[in-house]
Predict the structure.
Amino acid sequence: MSKGKESKPHIGIYGRRNNGKSSLINKLAGQDIAIVSDYAGTTTDPVKKSFEITGFGPVILIDTAGIDDTGELGKKRIEKTLALIKTVDLAILVITENTFGDFENMLIEKFQKTDTPFFIVHNKSDLVSLNDSINKKIASQTGTAVIEFDTIKAENLEKLIRLIKTTIPESAYTTPSLVGDLLSYGDIVLLITPIDIEAPAGRMILPQVQAIRDILDNDAVAIVLKEREVDAFLRKTKIAPALAITDSQIFTKADASVPGNIPLTSFSIVLARYKGDFESYVKGTPKISDLKDGDRVLLLESCTHHVSCDDIGRVKIPRWLTNFTGKKLEYDVVTGLDKLPRDIKEYALLVQCGGCVITRKQLINRLKPATDAGVPVTNYGMAIAYVQGIYERAISPFVGNKQSSADYL
């Protein structure tokens, strides 16, 4: 399950069957949005519910299947529950009857491995209250808070909401700026946006829209034009933009049209810094030159855009990489957040899309297996800039005019 276009904080509710996870969600929502039953295993798959927590704001709460599910179907449900941890901004682990064992320890290990903040709710405390020694043991073992709760009286509801506020990372509900740190009041930014087969009819692609909004939010001026209009515009107006951002596919044309004293980058590289592992990209991109015959390259198209006949991820980047290296390379393309077709260590390079409709946490966790295994990673825009010979110029707005990619190595 992907967050997709839902940018609200995602909170996952985890625990054993019949621990009252769905009842807890209903109390937080102030309405019956999750099915509640006395029978264990009522929730069979992760279910997302969007609503507003009073005193906090809009969130996506995710009701998950019991971590102690049984049978073949149960194993598959547990796999989905565990896979979801990579996408949530906060996890709430629900326990009852002072029961804390292997299932809970396994979940906490997953939370910690993915840097997912969490806390623990001892639910149904109207039936069995939290034992003080168990409470101390859990707190000592996990280093996190344990709160008593019952969904009948909900006396600790406000305390629970405060705990959500203090535990969830600020990055989950605040939006950093794409290019605001590069701009001053009234600066002009040139956005070079080709209108081709991959552009949605009557609309602009999401990174372009995000850039326009970010520029306006930072009290700067956005000028949007197609690539064939750049030369005439600059010549007629004599305007010297503070920054130019282009579509990666026309990097060469933009590089020729935009004077060298004007910083130039791409929408994809802007996104790479905004929500990707930019330092790893900077280190990994030059490894393109080290590719050998028979090497396998993984392309991650995490946003599942409509596929065109000359798609950038499936067609253009493989063609450019092959032509640049002169090597016989093998390519795997994975869309969305699907499982990889082979072990990450079998790849010589990973090329990640900009990730415009997924979250930073999703993207970082998507890259983590590769970075942990020492597999070089790059980004669509940075890879394109590299093979087209304008890599240093394309990343210079973000690493400093006097600093090259070598300084990151």
Q: What stands out?
A: Residues 1-6, 33-44, 306-310, 401-409 have pLDDT under 50 and may be disordered. Residues 44 and 171 are 30 Å apart (CA to CA). The two ends are 35 Å apart (CA to CA).
